[in-house]
Structure to design on (289 residues):
């Protein structure tokens, strides 16, 4: 059973009790859980062949209405989300430098249903990375204004220096995905496992568009690979890049992209990810076989 499914089942067991009101929120806990997984993937730091460090201290920024709904349960919800991150780290063979913590904060600039995730590496008294089995996880960092060393966007004080990476193709070099314990990204239409071929497609208003190339540009222009007739969509709005994992990149659009409820410029995609551009919702799909 997958990490996300176990998380959903644990929450379902609580839905008639403490978490009954949580599920009435515009932002769902499962959405936040998916964002935390992507935060780990997007910010994994390869220290050496045996260690890939990811964030362990996370802040989930919520709109005022969502924060008011979720904050009374922030302790229990934070524990469940931390458990999911721990399980995901073990599955991906990530390591971390301190205990995993997930905090909720209110952000006045966010509308209901939208959220942001920030993360950092917050080292414990011992600065050497610990394996996932130790119940701790690794952190990621994003720059924030006026934050000092050791804050979001900065490495923890006393952290050992990152080793120099061998040149691509040189002795000891491995792709980042392989070093993180994940298979290297197959190209479109190639085998992603033992005899398994990964198929990728997107669904827009009930219409399926196959992804058969390394990149797929979405936009309002007739030159886009997939044209979206929506005044809120830029001519070249965003680009899906296939791989393990697949990602989406904003191409400098006017209105930006929202992936699984989170405004972003770059995100990892999983089967079922919901992408909003303008007023159009796109569902990303992938399957083996």
């Amino acid at each position: 059973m997958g990490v996300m499914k176990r998380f959903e089942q644990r929450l379902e067991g609580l839905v008639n009790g403490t978490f009954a009101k949580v599920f009435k929120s515009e932002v769902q806990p499962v959405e936040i859980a998916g964002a935390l997984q992507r935060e780990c993937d997007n910010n994994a730091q390869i220290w050496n062949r045996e260690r890939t460090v990811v964030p362990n201290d996370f802040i989930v920024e919520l709109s005022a209405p969502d924060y008011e709904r979720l904050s009374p349960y922030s302790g229990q919800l934070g524990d469940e989300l931390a458990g999911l991150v721990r399980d995901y780290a073990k599955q991906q063979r990530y390591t971390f430098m301190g205990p995993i913590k997930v905090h909720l904060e209110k952000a006045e600039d966010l509308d209901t249903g939208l959220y942001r995730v920030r993360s950092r590496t917050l080292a414990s008294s011992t600065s050497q990375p610990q394996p996932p089995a130790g119940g701790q996880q690794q952190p990621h960092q994003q720059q924030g204004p006026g934050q000092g060393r050791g804050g979001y966007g900065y490495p923890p004080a006393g952290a050992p220096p990152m080793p120099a990476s061998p040149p691509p193709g040189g002795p000891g070099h491995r792709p980042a995905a392989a070093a993180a314990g994940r298979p290297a990204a197959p190209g479109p239409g190639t085998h992603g496992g033992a005899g398994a071929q990964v198929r990728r497609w997107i669904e827009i208003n009930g219409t399926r568009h196959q992804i058969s190339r390394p990149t797929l540009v979405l936009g309002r222009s007739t030159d886009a690979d997939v044209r979206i007739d929506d005044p809120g969509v830029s001519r070249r709005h965003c680009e899906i890049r296939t791989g393990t994992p697949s990602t989406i990149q904003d191409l400098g659009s006017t209105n930006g992209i929202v992936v699984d409820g989170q405004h972003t410029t770059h995100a990892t995609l999983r089967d079922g990810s919901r992408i909003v551009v303008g007023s159009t919702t796109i569902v990303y799909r992938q399957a083996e076989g």
Observations:
- Helices lie at 3-12, 29-42, 64-70, 74-92, 176-179.
- The chain is about 20% helix and 25% strand.
- The longest helix spans residues 74-92.
- The radius of gyration is 19 Å.
